[in-house]
Amino acid sequence: MDIVLEILKGIGSLLLQPALYVSVLIVIIAGFNRTKWERKSFHIRVHSPWQELKGFFGLGIVFGVLVSIVLIFTGFTLTIGWIAIFNVVLIVLLLVGLFRMTSTAYTIGIASLVYYGAYYFDWQLAPFEDTMLPIKDLYIDNFMIAIVFILALLLAVEAFLIQYSGANQASPMLRKSGRGKWIGAFQLRRLWLLPLVCFIPGHGFAAFFDWWPIFQIGNQAFSLLILPVVIGFQQQVQSQLPKQATHKIAVRVTSLAIVIALFGVGSIVMPILCLAAFVVAIIGRFWISYRHRSEEQNAAFKYTPQSDGIMILGARENTPASRMEILAGEVILEANGKKVTDRAELYDALNENRAYCKLKVRDNNGEPRIVQTAIHEEDSFELGLFMVE
């Protein structure tokens, strides 16, 4: 029973870290800003303003539990000084770069470089320093090697999250191209919370909070803490399908994770490679984002007005269009047997049979297909489509 109580206290330690509250606040603001831009483009919101918050407390927590199990069984420990620096770095990057700058390559990479600088230049981190384990007495090489491997693992998790949920409920938008024409695009933006269970050598936070959970293992005391690791992802897509874009980015992040893991192996023999690993992680993740942006700017626009039909950006949930499974990037060629090239022609064709809708669509492979559904009294007359005209 005492162990359960101490674990519950450790969970409470998550609520004492300011990075968590800043993350939640930014996620909420981002959700309402997104709906504002959706209304500007389509005069109606596409997704709930709470979508980002639901994603924040979603799949990432599962991975947080899995990674925590790995950390516990490997005996991984952190120091109070590193945790304090990590919180500061995470908050600054959230405020400066929002979702785009909160990859673990940035947060863990920068925090670790700053922490190593504190060790090398003998900076005093009080009151965050643990008197039972001062930074000058830390086996800094072993500590940094462990951080490199954790960074590689978290980058692999980041790649998985981008691959399998980065494009979920992508937010469509309309914007003007350099030539002044309206084109469609998608904003991919996610923030995931990974709560990691960590042990801290010494009494640590118990010096500030007498209720803080302490575990005794042999002759060594450990404090329990849950670290709010936040992984962010943000890209704009206008030349390809969102899932195609997230797949490419995920593959590149996976490659970066493998490279960092190799640096970790090399640092066992040559510890200085730890610092190189953090620098490579930061530069590599920046290059991945820059390369995607460059490719998007140089590629032909996908979501543009069509001469032979109506380009679709997506469909609202629980509408005739969603029942017909009309997808982003598809083009409506005919409605109820009539060719359509704009919104007015589409609605004129729908007016001929208000109880039924049959569309001829060109899919993303360039192949035609027929979709159809009954129109119910409570259904939207506009079918729930988001169009580029």
TrEMBL record:
Keyword Membrane: yes
Transmembrane segments: 14-32, 53-73, 79-98, 105-123, 143-167, 188-208, 214-233, 269-288
Gene3D superfamilies xref list: 2.30.42.10
Keyword Membrane: yes
Coiled-coil ranges from the UniProt annotation: none
Keyword annotations: Membrane, Transmembrane, Transmembrane helix
Domain of life: Bacteria
Name of the protein: Cell division topological determinant MinJ
Taxonomic placement: Bacteria, Bacillati, Bacillota, Bacilli, Bacillales
